[in-house]
Amino acid sequence: MDPVVIPILVAALVVVFLVAATVRIVPQARRYNIERFGRYRRTLQPGLNFVLPVADRVNTKLDVREQVYSSDPKPVITEDNLVVNIDTVLYYQITDPRAAAYEVADYLQAIDQLTVTTLRNVIGSMDLEATLTSREEINARLRAVLDDATGKWGIRVNRVEIKAIDPPNTIKEAMEKQMRAERDKRAAILHAEGERQAKILTAEGTKQKDILEAQGTQQAMILRADGESKAVELVFQAVHRNNADAKVLAYKYLETLPHLAQSDNNTFWVIPGELTEAIRTVTTAFGDQSAGAGLSASAEREDAAADVAGSDKDGVGAPEIEPNPTLALDAVAAADEAAKQAAAAVSDAKAEAEAAGETRLPGRR
Fold it and tell me: Is 0.70 topped by the overall pTM?
């Protein structure tokens, strides 16, 4: 080999080594801490950077993106002397690569231990129930303490979350029993409230039903009474407009007697005292003036016979009264006919009343 080529190759290798030792390419979201002869010199930013070969070297390579750190479960004692295991999740970001590399030896271990001690201080002032229901408060207090302590380390704590709180098994069983009893209580209360509402609604419905029925009955009775009053008024006006005499009224009175026994509530039938007067009026209606005279004569004979009977009681004799052959036969026949018709009407009414009573008696037994 030519002796001139060897020095050239050595010089080329030296140049390549020097160039490689001088150029440093830093990826995005990374930071390199450079030391010159063992002392911090500067922090390389992403991109192409140049350093002094042999004199400068990269001490630490740091990732400045937000990172997640999940710690192992740590036992913590509550205020009521119960041991619970708590898992935490930490979200942090390196803001100062120099401080993160030179202010603390291991920032992850430091953050973990600080989280445990802060948790014990916070949870130690709370009982188990407050610990289980105050996660937001615990997270806020943890973040405030960690952010204040890690600021000088060049680290910003963005978020701290409690992942799990595990009480002892005995406490879990007691809590389950308590929750079951509480749910049974709520179910019983809801059931009783439902029954109460159902009874109230039923009572309201019954009340409204009774009110509507009563109003309907009232309206029906008012309409019925109004109709009857108008009918009576029309009959009364018709009677007075046509100037009906006592004969027509007496006949209508006898005509309505059979209808008295048609009601279902009548168990017996009473003959009114005005029946004889009505029969007398009808009898007078079928007679003429001579019949009226004959009836007057008959009444006078009866009065005379009563006087004779009275005088006989007193021991004084009285002359015999002979019948008057001049009475009108047609008046007597008319009176007999009217009496027969009235008696027949009364008999029919009684028969209908007895038939109605016999029909209802078997049902009552």
Answer: no
